[in-house]
Write a structure and sequence with these properties.
The chain is of the alpha+beta class. It has four helices and 16 strands.
Length: 241
């Protein structure tokens, strides 16, 4: 800062400093250890002395300690809350949990096990939930007023591949006629038709009653008089279901 020293000029007449820095010094009379004398004191030393005298240093230290303590307590509280959530997630009376893939998970007592996974929507299908764990046979399904267990459904479905029930070309479940015939095993399903080997065209083998060859010599046709399991009469053409 600028200094002014004019002999005989009263102190009140000296100009005020517009700013100071920590290294600037003040000139004054300092009494210390019983002695009095003129001394220069830097702004920094004076500020430190004032801070210590009014207890500011202790207050700052106490505030820092308090802030550190509060941060530690907040972290401990957050950890405790996280542990509490982990302890009850996926458990009865607890809360749902999602794994890293966003799948709804349950606990087996030791770790989380994915229970439901989300099948994302596409341009043609909506999003769906799919079970990621096996369902018990007692699991119930309801359509309207009809309720059935998974075991009931499996029993019904298991009969579809038997000799008494089949699904027709329109998706309907129908009983197999009692006079159903068996299609020769060497007939080959080829798209929407059955193709007969050359032995049939050569007369070395013969088709069952109700079936005959088309003019191409290999496509199997039907007159509709006999029923063959796993087939349907697509007009005169015998077609696989």
């Amino acid at each position: 800062m600028a200094t002014t020293n004019q002999p005989g000029q009263p102190i009140s007449g000296l100009p005020f400093a517009d700013s100071v820095s920590p290294t600037d010094a003040l000139l004054g009379i300092v009494t210390k250890a019983g002695g009095t004398g003129a001394n220069q004191v830097t702004i920094l030393v004076l500020a430190q002395a004032i801070s210590a005298a009014i207890g500011l240093d202790d207050a700052v230290a106490a505030a820092q300690t308090s802030a550190a303590s509060a941060a530690a307590k907040a972290e401990a509280a957050g950890t405790a809350a996280s542990d509490a959530v982990t302890a009850i997630r996926g458990k009865a009376g607890g809360m749902a949990a999602l794994d890293a893939l966003g799948q709804l998970s349950l606990t087996d007592g030791k770790s989380l096990v994915a229970a439901l996974k989300v099948m994302p929507a596409t341009q043609t299908t909506p999003a769906r939930l799919a079970t990621a764990i096996p369902l018990d046979g007692a699991t119930q399904f309801q359509a309207g007023d009809t309720v059935a267990t998974l075991a009931d459904l499996l029993t019904a479905v298991s009969g579809l591949g038997g000799s008494q029930i089949y699904i027709d070309q329109d998706g309907f479940v129908r009983p197999v006629p009692s006079d159903a015939q068996t299609l020769p095993s060497d007939l080959v399903a080829d798209g929407g038709r059955y193709r007969a080997p050359a032995e049939y065209q050569a007369g070395m083998k013969f088709l069952p009653a109700g079936l005959f060859l088309n003019s191409d010599g290999e496509t199997v046709m039907t007159d509709g008089s006999q029923f063959f399991a796993g087939t349907w009469a697509n007009g005169p053409l015998l077609s696989p279901l």
